[in-house]
Each structure stands twice: as C-alpha cells, then as structure tokens.
Specification:
Blueprint lengths: L8 H16 L4 H8 L3 H9 L6 H10 L5 H13 L16 H13 L2 E6 L10 H9 L7 H21 L2 E7 H5 L5 H15 L4 E6 L4 H4 L5 E5 L8 E5 L4 E4 L2 H17 L3 H21 L1
Parallel strand pairs: 1-2, 2-3
Antiparallel strand pairs: 1-4, 4-5, 5-6
Length: about 290
C-alpha cells in the first residue's frame, strides 16, 4: 500500500495509465489478473492507485497490453519504483494548510519533463528570488507567523533546486504588469528581473512577456501550470492555485482547453529575445529611477 495507507499521486498516475492502456488493448481486469497471478480486486486497487504496483507486475502488464515504447515503459517502471518514495518537502516543518495537496503538486512538479506556466499577476514560482517570495509571503493574510514565512521561502527555493537539477523544459508567459508593477523596494524589483534574465539564458527555459495591451489574450484563462511527462507534448496535469489550495485537473478534455489557451498566449506575447530586451529595459529603468531619487 502506498505510504500513509492512501494513494499517492505517483500511484494514482501509474494506475490511471495502466487502466487506459488496458482499455486501449480491449482487455478486462480478469485478463490482467491472470497475467500477474492475482485477483481482479488487486488489479482494481492498482488502477485506482490504492495499491502500489510492483515493477515486475508493471512489466508483465505492459507486455500483455502490447506496449513497446521504451520511454513509456521506463517512465511507468520508475513510477512503480518511486511510488512510496518520501518527498523532500516532508523535511520541512512549516505550518502549511492542506499539506497533502501541496505534496501532490510538488511530486507532480518534480517528475515533470516539461512545465508550462501562465502568470498574469506574479513571477512564476520556479523563477522567483528569495526576497521576492518573502515579500509575497509577508503580504499573504494566511501566513501569520514569521517562522512559517521563512519555511515557505525555503521550500520555494528547494523547488527551484530540484527543477534545475532535473533538466526539465520550462516555458512561461508572464503578463507585463507582473513585471512592471510596484514591488516592496527597487532592490527586490531589480534582483527579481535580473534573475529572470539569467534564467532565460538557459537552453531549457523560455520566458515570454505578454504586453499590457494584449488584454484579450490575458483574459483567455486564469493563472495555471501545465505539466507534461516523458516525451508527451500534451499536458497530463493542470494545476491552478486558490487562496488556500491547489486544484489539480487530470481530465484530458479539460486539459485540451488549457493547452489551446497557452498557445494563444505565446502567440500574442513578445518573442523570447524581445522579452529579454523588455525585462532588461524595465530593470534599467528601475535603477535610473532609484539613482535619481
């Protein structure tokens, strides 16, 4: 059984994929149970994520379903191998509401190979400096104690480290007001923009600025993150933040609309080179204003 006696996000992803592959092969649970010498009840629990599938069982099921794609097989075996793996975020003792939901998201983010982010209000979390994150946290009415705010900053920076080590692709579209609007101090503002330019120079990261005047495009969707895995171009998960939680969407019909929205945003945004030039100009403007003050 997954850690904690309940499904983990990895076991759910693995189970949902195994079910989808079984149905595509036009086989029922009895066929799957016979292949791995278990009961149909266990197959049902595996497909729901309530039971962690063993790597050997996954291999036999993939053989039964005729899955020959090497990358897919490797990815699903890794999900089986790591389904009960302790999340790095459990080492932090901060007071976070809905910690299980946060853990689900961090697990999804850590496994992703392609992350797409649309942010009309803030700099995307994986691109934030500690000072910028701290400023946002201090302004959050849900965070009532200084120690909790400090832990949130540490978790955000650990997320950034995990992402950088993963080598995952990252594409962000950020609306202009998120970059030009007031921040707590010119120093925080300049450092945040300087970091964006530094990150944008990495080959796996693309940052595009949506001009302020593209208001119609900016309203195509609220802020969201789309996560893809392996060589899949289409997202497998969409995540949206609320005041107190993260909403995780896994319905493929719903995700199609978000993918279309992201492509519309990219088309309306400045090119990556134009975006870097815009960020540099904005940062230099802040420096000049500070010197003149």
């Amino acid at each position: 059984m997954p850690a904690g006696g309940k499904p983990t996000v990895r076991s759910r992803r693995l189970g949902a994929t195994l079910k989808r592959l079984r149905l595509a092969a036009r086989l029922d649970q009895e066929h799957a149970a016979e292949a791995v010498a278990c009961s149909t009840a266990k197959i049902s629990r595996m497909e729901s994520g309530a039971v962690a599938a063993r790597v050997g069982d996954v291999r036999m099921l993939l053989d039964l379903y005729g899955v020959e794609d090497v990358d897919m097989r490797r990815r699903l075996e890794a999900l089986a191998r790591n389904s009960n793996k302790r999340g790095w975020w459990l080492n932090f003792q901060f007071q976070q509401p809905n910690l299980d939901r946060l853990g689900d998201y961090l697990s999804l983010e850590a496994d992703a190979t392609y992350i797409r982010s649309w942010q009309p209000v803030f700099i995307p979390g994986l691109l934030q400096t500690p000072a910028y994150t701290k400023a946002l946290t201090d302004a959050n009415p849900e965070v009532l104690v200084e120690s909790a705010a400090d832990e949130i900053v540490k978790v955000r920076q650990e997320r950034r480290r995990v992402f950088e080590e993963s080598g995952a692709r990252f594409a962000a579209v950020v609306w202009e007001p998120a970059l030009t609007g007031p921040m707590p101090s010119p120093q925080v503002h300049r450092e945040a923009l300087a970091h964006l330019m530094k990150v944008a120079a990495q080959p796996n990261v693309t940052i595009q600025v949506l001009p302020h005047g593209e208001w119609a495009a900016a309203r195509v969707a609220p802020a969201f993150v789309a996560l893809s895995y392996a060589n899949e171009a289409s997202p497998e998960v969409i995540v949206q933040d609320t005041m107190v939680n993260s909403v995780i969407l896994e319905d493929h019909e719903d995700m199609a609309g978000y993918l279309h929205a992201f492509e519309a945003l990219r088309s309306a945004a400045l090119t990556p080179d134009q975006s870097i030039a815009f960020i540099r100009k904005t940062m230099n403007g802040i420096a000049v204003e500070n010197e003149e003050a």
